[in-house]
Hints:
By secondary structure, this protein is mostly helical. Helix content is 65%, strand content 0%.
Amino acid sequence: MRLEQRFGINVRRVRKQRGLTQEALAHDVEIDVSYLGQIERGERNPTLSLVQRLSDALGVTHLILLASDDDA
């Protein structure tokens, strides 16, 4: 699985665990909700700055968002 796909899956999983909508998370990190959807589907490769903003907003380390199932 490509890294951007794994990242997107993890963002979606943690977002849902936190009870956040895409709209709320997108607002928190100051991106468009459609861009967040593309990230969650593994269609976009976010910048390192955005990876940090997402991890901060979700209350996890960036490593959690980049981890594969084997790392869990």
